[in-house]
Amino acid sequence: MLNKVTSYFLEGESNYNVNLKDENPSSFLLQDNSNVTLDLELSSKENKIYFNLGKDSNLNLRIIVKHEIENVELHANVSRGTNFNIYVVDLFNNSITFKSIVDLDQENASSSFHLGVLSKNDEKKNYDISFNHKVGRTFSELDAYGVSKDLSMIKINGTSHIFKNSVKANANQKAKVIVFDDEAKAIANPILKIDCNDVIAKHACAIGSLKDEYVYYLLSRGISLKEARNLITLGYLLPISKHFSKEDEEKIIGLIEGEF
Amino acid sequence: MEKLVIKDLCAEVEGNQILKGVNLTINKGETLALLGPNGHGKSTLLAVLMGNPRYKVTSGSIEYDGKDLLSLKVDERSKAGLFLAFQNPAEIPGVVSADFFKGAINAHRDNKIKLFEFYKKLEDTCKEVNLPFDMVNRNLNDGFSGGEKKRNEILQLLLLNPDIAMLDEIDSGLDVDAINIVSKCINAQKESKNTGFLIISHYARLFELVKPDRAAVMINGRIVEEGDASLISKIDNEGYEWIEKELGILIKKEETNKPMNKVSIGVCATKEVIKDVK
Asked: Do A225 and B75 touch (CB under 8 A)?
């Protein structure tokens, strides 16, 4: 049986706030020459979302992941001259699998995925972020920051696939996770599939406990060990908040500070 | 008044004995120049005084204001009035400088500083060290030039008003104008707050500007000579060889051709052969 797809049209210079309850799967169509910010509220356990982005446009998608969400599948097709930025803050839900596949179908299409994720207790948070550079002169960026506490685990798979003949494609990945407690775990897999010459593909990955050098420097200025650890950790999670609305930014900062 | 009294201090790092019986006293309000060839323990002494956990004190004592400094944790030493300006300050991504400064100032006060007072103090101090005020919104030392990092250390010194400030090669990497600014700040701090300074430098220029009251020479992990500021000119003119002759001390040369550690750079990326889809 085929599920009915709920479609949303996005256009012009606008801010949209959409609460997806049982509308699964959902489809968003961005008109050509638009500049849109979409705050997406997910309320179902399972979420399938499709994006089709027209030409010469910009879409900023902002998601604050909530408690009840278990699975998110996001598929996007990005057209010529269009930029698709995805911002995901995941601070207070349970275990989750979040899969994002962005196809950069035409020249000068670009996309970025920014993630701030905190895991605690025995949560398992899997993020599988893929960009497919199907043609040349396309740009992608993964910028993921995480903090793993208690017995929890964060796994970030970043896949940048540069297809044949995609000359001048540019793929960047950065994943940084602090393992806050001894029993906590973090895995980051940067995967670069490159089937073309004359491209740029970069990745940077750092996983580990708090650097002793950082902690010592802060302690040497009178800051306590607890505060020093918190300050460094907040530095991982707070920067993403500035991409959200003022109201959401305050909410995110409050949530993060409440955790440490 | 004696503020910091170091007696027979021995310390090691990763099993290597660096400090081999250091005796030194620093008084409040005085400036002491610490001289010595590279690799003879000057920076180690400062790190041990600040409580760097990499270094292990094997024997000896350090009294600070009559109390046992070695029993204090790093943050407690700072709150007691000790300050170290690092030779290579840590770059900490994600930690906004202003948040860090506020945390550090509050750690030294009973009541938290008011926001207006904090920003006024910060703005004034930035002007003193000639750092642009918008620097406070950048991540701590992240992407700073060598000179900016050093001036940022002096900025923190001025914000925290320590009783004893230890400066580890604060002048390295600074141009002439920046050295003038830094030395002016040191002199003003000494004058207005009676801060004592322990300064490591290899260059006479800084010492000409801050005019130390005394100088001490560290060789092979020990203080081998103490004297007035004329000791600085003597070393600047003659180097350290006279110490070998006059004091009969064989100066251990810095090892320059140590074998490299065996390291693996790991696998950075893999290229997969992808089948053509027809």
From this structure: yes
